[in-house]
Amino acid sequence: MNRNPDSSASASYPGSRSSAGHQAPEDQSERHMRGLANLARVDGHGGAEVLAAVEAVSPDLARYLVEFAFGDVYARPGLSLRDREIAALTALAAQSAWPQFKVHVRAALRAGLTRNEIIELVIQAAVYCGFPTALNALFATGDVFAAMEEE
Amino acid sequence: MNRNPDSSASASYPGSRSSAGHQAPEDQSERHMRGLANLARVDGHGGAEVLAAVEAVSPDLARYLVEFAFGDVYARPGLSLRDREIAALTALAAQSAWPQFKVHVRAALRAGLTRNEIIELVIQAAVYCGFPTALNALFATGDVFAAMEEE
Amino acid sequence: MNRNPDSSASASYPGSRSSAGHQAPEDQSERHMRGLANLARVDGHGGAEVLAAVEAVSPDLARYLVEFAFGDVYARPGLSLRDREIAALTALAAQSAWPQFKVHVRAALRAGLTRNEIIELVIQAAVYCGFPTALNALFATGDVFAAMEEE
Amino acid sequence: MNRNPDSSASASYPGSRSSAGHQAPEDQSERHMRGLANLARVDGHGGAEVLAAVEAVSPDLARYLVEFAFGDVYARPGLSLRDREIAALTALAAQSAWPQFKVHVRAALRAGLTRNEIIELVIQAAVYCGFPTALNALFATGDVFAAMEEE
Amino acid sequence: MNRNPDSSASASYPGSRSSAGHQAPEDQSERHMRGLANLARVDGHGGAEVLAAVEAVSPDLARYLVEFAFGDVYARPGLSLRDREIAALTALAAQSAWPQFKVHVRAALRAGLTRNEIIELVIQAAVYCGFPTALNALFATGDVFAAMEEE
Amino acid sequence: MNRNPDSSASASYPGSRSSAGHQAPEDQSERHMRGLANLARVDGHGGAEVLAAVEAVSPDLARYLVEFAFGDVYARPGLSLRDREIAALTALAAQSAWPQFKVHVRAALRAGLTRNEIIELVIQAAVYCGFPTALNALFATGDVFAAMEEE
Fold first, then answer.
1. Does D141 contact B57 at a Cβ distance shorter than 8 Å?
2. Contact present, F138 and E87 (Cβ < 8 Å)
3. Predicted-complex ipTM score
4. Which residue in A14, A10, A65, A75 sits closest to A41, CA to CA?
5. Which residue stretches belong to region Disordered (chains A, B, C, D, E, F) (predicted)?
6. pTM reported for the whole predicted model
7. Which of F60, F69, F91 is nearest residue B123 as measured by Cβ atoms?
8. Which end of chain A has fewer CB within 10 Å, C or N?
């Protein structure tokens, strides 16, 4: 039985590395370009705003966000963007990271989740994280929906 | 603009309640039966084991698990079971709830996630929760895959 | 020795279920009515405000809050409301859920805890959760006391 | 309106300090003796075991546990020991600190909470912290009850 | 091999207690004076502000902050103040305790950490706690740096 | 006033990128080699063991650990390895990530922290994270010291 489930997926894209050690070389600028593209695809205009805010204090942390989070992880083909945003919203709610949660409510809508599905994720958080977390996630979600009405 | 996104979904199943206050009455045994059915559908044999372990200490907490978590929330049609398990695994990893995480690795596979997709969720946890959480989630995942080989 | 400590308490109220499987049927509206009554008893005017805020985004999550949290759990006779609010304040501080913590400072006072006892809980949080959490809980408590002076 | 709720309670025991700055001097050995006495009163034999385990690695951390946690905070008269253990169990469950949670299940019983009341606190944790935390707290509680049967 | 690593350090300052049980007596006012001195040394003007805010609601919690946190722990010679602030910033970021994190950005600068070193700690938090925590820590850091520009 | 504190440090090593956008290209194998070297330097034999355990389930997560955590972040010159391990231990204790905490007790000793300094960090965790976390960190530390005696 194959116990390395991602080896099949890992061979097929730039920067991947099979379990046997073969590595496809690429330079940093490819990772950076891919990262910027994914950041725009995922977060739209909001992503550029976050990046600018991070760069203002630490250009290097901004670079890691672009290259590792978006150039490496979000670029991986083994999970759809829609699935990734389900996980992102849940992780952010579980950690009460409300600024990022709000950014990802918008990213989730861009990725194809409906408003109703986002609410369903919040309702499920009541079971997995408790009602306080779920309520705060719901209020953050409502804030984003309301702001979108104003735009 | 409609700001009650779940009102359309809420009218269509037993126990739902529209925003106007209309409520479909049902007694506890319907919720209970639906919950037991969902528990079996989601967690398979593992769910019955967890339920027995909970009942041994608190029959009432077991009942709430069946009726609220599985009879109410997991029964909701607005989010697929596969999507629910993506969220479940992520919430459990974020809280380091490893016993439940392991149960839900199996539930996720039953719900249609592949082993590779589960690994992808763990990799994404490195971005959202940090490498320590991701590593512990990965080890728990590997433990389940190994145990499944033995079965 | 009896290892099901709540079986004796569980037989005595609507919706309870003994360990032998006997279940007292009730329909959803009883749970809902009981929940609304408990929400008012526990949170007073603040509870209605929270409920309205939740309903504005998700009528179903509001219903679960009323029916499960207040209709089922808060209705249980095995623990006094005063004891429940000691636990509620502590759980909310431990999770840094400050909006809900503030609502429950008022609920705790309604339940019979004195202002001094609430402060004692916050002081004890310095031991169990650390000084940062205790300080933030203290500031939230002070905010509520100050707001009450204005009313 | 008096906004220093603990000033009245603070004047009445050794080491207290009123808001006006008057301080009742005591030396370290009084705090230490009081702490050891409270540790025995609260945790019984289990407390001595924990203290020995801590002293084996850090005599100073053991001293702070005795003097600050038990000599100062647990000695405060403004909250009963039973109330303190309700808060302790909840804080420990919220943080998934299972070794300490198990010690405090025994402390809670010594403080006058019944087994059923402890189970009620765990059930309420399902609302405030989510079902995963509540289940893990329930299993820890069941482990302690089972161990007590063996003694 | 000596398994009590702090016994050598513990004998050398007031209030210390060797593993053999010998204890140097001191009264509360020495701990209090030492605590106030350390609070000023560590947090400067910000510390006095925090203390006043705490005293306004609980003079006793303020006293414990001064006497235990600063009079006992921060006074210990076994770790430099600079090292303590590295740990303080990290613990506060990990718990998302942003008000205290901001106070300690200033304390860290006073303790000899450079702005760049504080940013490095935040970047490392992306690895250990995830990017959401790191971003929120970065924004809090940037807020403090900006406020310092205004002073 | 320069508000980009890491720009000066960022220009001086491979892969860095100044705030003006200039980027020094390197391919993946340089990051990978640097990461393996740092992993060995930081974690010694324990690091190779962890890496192998991660690779057994996800070669890609292992690669990110090596390349991002150790090749990028740990390679940064702006903070010493000793300082990094102070932060690592604290972050791991704050998250109760005990397997990784134990690995980093050894890494901290390799980085120049003494056993006594590690104990001091644990004692300080009692202030910042509460006594439960500090006790669990202390027991984990004691376990590592004891295991080292056996080697």
1. yes
2. no
3. 0.85
4. A75
5. 1-31
6. 0.88
7. F60
8. C
